[in-house]
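Quick start: what a row looks like.
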Amino acid sequence: MNICVLGAGTWGIALSALLSKNSHSVSVWSAIPEEIEMLRETRTHKNLPGVTLPDDISYYTDMGEAIFGAEIVLYVTPSEFIRATAHRSVPYLRDGAVLVNAAKGIEKQTLLTMTEVISDEINSNAPDLKYSIVALSGPTHAEEVARGLPTSIVSACEDERIAMKVANVFFNTCMRVYTNTDVKGVEIAGAFKNIIALAAGINRGMGYGDNSGAMLMTRGIAEITRMGLALGCEARTFMGLAGIGDLIVTCTSRHSRNNRCGELIGMGKSYEEASREIGMVVEGYHALEAAMALSRKYGVEMPITAAVYSVIKNGTSIYDAMYALMNRDIKSELKI
């Protein structure tokens, strides 16, 4: 199958390698010429040390050439660039194409999920184009996928047949794929767990223990689930791979840039200093505005999210933020 991957970051390249090993014809696009030149010349990615990429992946800076003939198109840029990438891709999409979003985030201006952003661009600029759209999400650090370590992911589409089609494209002995029809739930979980990962990292950086880390993860998935239910999502989605699964790996792994960024903030650095040290996009930061806007719009209580927002955006002391969280009114755990 001909597959195009839009985005040559670590996740896009890890997925490209997996798809190539599954005997698909893979083309990769990036807007950064130096990135494409390095990939062509070395078959390596600077942020995936020790990984040699398959020889048969093609690399392009011309999006039209990259997408030409593609039956499946993956959008794997940082979430803040998804709309621009989708807009640019519209003229090159074939009728009946399957579009797969592999980015995690919510557009802060519109509060749309990434599949909704992609659909918005296509429906506005090519209303007669027939296409299907899928969200791909789960506990999937690129560093491990690229090395062929056992991983599981969710293929989510309102049409179960399309979800299964995409699942079969990615499935192999190292990648187990489940399907889900709750697309919005999968995307909400994937976007907002990054905020909780910032909180877990701040907790570690402050020198607090495993107890408070577990508290933040558990109550974090509770508030994400509350938001999901308010948006009409399935509660079970948040207990699955795209929800609690992704939350666990993002809150505990040293591969997690959100977690590492939070840890640096907990050690006393500003967000700007921490993000510069990380050197890659910290999606949790970009999700904060949208999360707080949705919280206000739907009247959903998200205390951990609000605390992280207060620390990063308003300069609240991390100790004051934790004190406020710990001294909230007692309530039943059974009330979602």
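That is the whole record. The chain has a mean pLDDT of 97. Residues 184-326 form a domain with the N-(1-d-carboxylethyl)-l-norvaline Dehydrogenase; domain 2 fold (CATH 1.10.1040.10).
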